[in-house]
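Hello again,

I reread your note about wanting to compare the complex against the isolated chains. To keep things tidy I'm splitting this into two emails, and this first one only covers the full assembly. Below are the input lines as submitted, including protein chains and any nucleic acid or small-molecule components. They are followed by the predicted structure of everything together. The single-chain runs will come separately.
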Amino acid sequence: MRFFSPGDRKPRVGFFKFSCCTGCGFQLAYFQKSLEDTLKSFDFTFFRLASSSGTPEGPFDLALVEGAVTEPYQIIELKKIRANSAVLYAVGSCAITGGIPAIKAGVPEMEVQNKAYRTKLYGLTSLRPSVLGDYVEIDGSVRGCPPGERDLQEAMVSVLFHRKPEFAGYSVCVECKIKGNICVLVAEGLPCMGPVTNAGCGALCPSYHRACYSCFGLMGQANTAALKGKFRKLGLTEDEIERRFSLFDALETKK
Amino acid sequence: MKAKTGYLGRVEGEGALEFEIHDGKLKRLKVNIWEPPRFFEGMLVGRRFDEVPDIVSRICGICPVSHMMTSIRAVEKAIGFEPDRGTIVARKLMSYSQIASSHLVHLIMLALPDYYGKGSLMELLPDKEVTLKKFIRLKETFNGITSAFGGGRALHPVSMVVGGFTALPNENRIRELRSNLLSSKDDLMDIFKTVSGLELPDLQTGSEFVSLSAEGEYAVNEGQIVSDMGLRGKEDDYETLFDEKEVPYSNAKKTVVRGRGPLMVGALARIYLQSDRLSENAKKTALEAGLIPDPVKNPFHNILAQAVEILHFAEGCQALLEIAKPETAYLKPEPGEGEGAALTEAPRGLLYHSYLIDRGGIVRKANIVTPTAHNYLGIEENLRRLIENNINEPVERLKLLAGMLIRAYDPCLSCSVH
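Full-complex prediction:
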């Protein structure tokens, strides 16, 4: 990580996508309350979703990369982006934990492909899904599916203020406590993933009477064994427990 | 002479156009979509019926509500669950507000810069600073509705599930949404004026226009299949009426009406086939924009149609918010066995999902056909027409025109491959 030195220009940002829904790109482009400030404070020199100009070559003061790695060419591109960028943040669950594209990780590649395509297209080169951190050093993770505004804002501001970002590193439970939510796991017996899931969403699901489904991925040092034990006590079958953990964390659970 | 656009900008996903002109004749043209496949139809097999909406939502970052909605309806049909009236109202609000915000993003961020010879909205500033402010205000208004009903976020909403909504906004919040919509009237008209003032290139398409149609309302979440060439059918007959073809040079498939040529789905086709069911104000603007009573089948007019639809759906949301009730209507559905198919109108047109679910509630088979797959063949066909009509123009101009036409369809390449 090299800090951006302002001089008389704005930080140059490159936005890249791999295998994903482009939701992180849209989330950044929406970024409604901060969109004007973001556009004024940064120079988006590569952002294909929003611009047909610019070059992917860089150099960038900040590279934001969304998506899981599922194609060989993406590894080469990722290494190039890393080499051309002072700071690189992984954005969104696909890039950080594998997210939804990683569901196929536990199934043989051809078995999944054959359910989606009838003929064997010569162009299909899909790999077992992997994450950015498997190939390059990343300077921070803007978690979420889609990323929360707090961390997205922190990512941008950290570059403007030349400091290390402070991303939410605690569990969804903390957000519930701050909001004063009644615990859906304890009080209602819903199979909530909040205790092991990284915060950043604002505890949306529990606030809307639903069990967290871990779309922000497992937080660091999550006590998954304890939560699985709790789920067993609630009467969930092993299969149901496995499903809770493999929706957004298939790479962890299917290692 | 060979021409390549490279990675197309201001289009959702990864794709490019290539064409060759020799001796004043267009020889070869293809839209190559290398957007990586994630094999959703493969991933869904083995997942439980109630996990499906949260998974398919991630097909697309701009129309997640459409994928959730279509899958929820298909799954509910398969397991034999009937949603109640309150749920149907809230689901319409989700879809209407999402279509309006998706159109706004397309019109202002993706399409507009071409007409000023710029690469992006950023390059259009500060000239378009007022437009940017209006765009942000309107987006907040529509996203506000999706997010209030969708559980706190418009992108990948959480409270819309198989069976209904786990929570709905209270009366104060509903009142607030109504008043935001009321005060957005001038902004809405200004966006329409900005779009209807653009000089759109000429082009006549022979594509068949296809959309849903419903009795007494502008069909979005449910309806029968209709076309301007006499196609009629039910959603359950979709797989016998349509055919998906795999393409050697692309990860996306091309879908056609069996035994027929290219089709066009989306805002222009919807207005073409259902203009009598537009709201009164939307009808007036459709008239002003020349989309009725004697429409020209010009795919570039899709952006006019989107501008008209924003007005229509704003009024639609206003009317639904009058009758929306804050009581939650969520009955946890039991797993059931069966097969279910559903068609809806996503922002970009006809979207199909079907599922086979076993006794344990596990998905055994899934099929998803997206609007961009329906438009794919037509996009190439009309690009050919466009280039042939302008064959003497310099190649840079041809590339620009072609890019504008592709964008007019508002394709979603992540969806098209999925």
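For quick reference: The mean pLDDT of chain B is 95.

B.
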